[in-house]
Task: structure prediction
Amino acid sequence: MTPTSNPDPFVALDGVQKSYALGAKKMLVFTGLQLGIQRGDFVAIMGPSGSGKSTLLNMLAGIDRPDAGTLRIGAHRLDQMGEAARTAWRAHHMGIVFQFYNLLPTLTAAENVELPLLLKPLSTKDRRARVNKILDLVGLAGREKQYPAQLSGGQQQRVGIARAIVSDPGLLLCDEPTGDLDRHSADEVLQMLGFLHRELGKTIVMVTHDPQAALCAQRTLHLDKGQFIEETRAA
Ligand SMILES: Nc1ncnc2c1ncn2[C@@H]1O[C@H](COP(=O)(O)OP(=O)(O)OP(=O)(O)O)[C@@H](O)[C@H]1O
Result:
């Protein structure tokens, strides 16, 4: 199947090939992947271990590059960019939420959220104001000065979400965002992602093993052995 409906999607993969060197051999992951995601879509990607989910997410994040084929996000051809250009692109156009939060333990919640803004030409006052606004948005007003170890898993993940969106990126990537959380905290995080999608119009791509998480998405794409085999859409 080819999950590409609109002719001009915000995220467009065409004929993407990707392999890894395994000694003298090649481990083929994708041999011609097609994908189109509209601006403002919330897409979940599910699939068994080894199906290529992380490989796809790393390419969408500009961490890794296809061997062949095109990968465009907005006006940017990531497949044609070198590493330095992709690093610069990441700082301005993409936010990522990790399974294990990836917060710096020696920084407070506010300082963790502030990190991506240090790359922007903003005054300290404007930076702090933006951080406080985003922490408020994710329900963490009053927790600014707490360290990650003083926060619950769900609260740490909300700091992770705040950090991912503080630069107002066009694309929000989530790598198993509920994988380390109990059901209650997971549901809170999913509600937050749903809010960002519905109210702020964020384009979200979320890799997940959690069927409850996938229910929050408009589209769920099922990946198997490097191919999309099925798509389900929210009613
Ligand atoms: N750096 C690497 N070197 C060699 N092979 C790799 C590398 N990264 C991934 N692979 C292989 O590529 C295939 C796809 O891996 P990938 O991590 O994308 O799958 P996944 O669907 O994310 O799996 P999981 O759900 O277990 O995280 C697997 O067979 C994996 O062993």
